[in-house]
Amino acid sequence: MRSAYDFTKHAAERSTHRVIPPMIAEIIIEYGESLDAGDGAVKYTLTKRSMSALRQVAGREIAKAIEAYRTRNAYVVAAGSRIITVAYGNRPLIH
Description:
This protein is 44% helix and 27% strand. It is an alpha+beta fold. It has one domain (6-88).
């Protein structure tokens, strides 16, 4: 299956090192809430509200598996269809 997003070299390396698979990064973009990251980039992160929406679409088991990324404050920075980086924050981006 071809991804709708292109990972930069940096994002691919960070995805591997930080154990945030590309599929999870895409789910964070598709279902997460967004914040301006500057220079035309957007930060996406999962919130309780976005997890509820994901649960309705994907079901309880999928949402349960992805919940660990929300509790670790995983986020994705993207510009258009390019994923720039993936990371874990020290605290939630959206309260």
